[in-house]
Amino acid sequence: MEENNIPVKPVHKTNKVIYILLAFFFGLLGVHRFVAGHWFAGTCYLVTFGIGSLLTLFFGLGFIILGVEGLVCLYDIVKAAMTTADDFGNIVI
Whole-model pTM? Predict the structure, then answer.
């Protein structure tokens, strides 16, 4: 899809309530980012969770990584909650 020879990024809408619930319950795994169509960000969440979990199991240092990831997930929740939904309850993240 192009407009005036400028590539246009396709818009992927997701339900606001589902996005927030997925971010709350499965946020560290990045499920909410996969649902929103952000595959790279979801993969980064998943890899970071795996690394943080392994470091926690073996060295006890992964809590810092998981804590930072949790704060980023909390930011995603607040950002989605503050975004205005359309008539169908969908938002663009």
Answer: 0.85
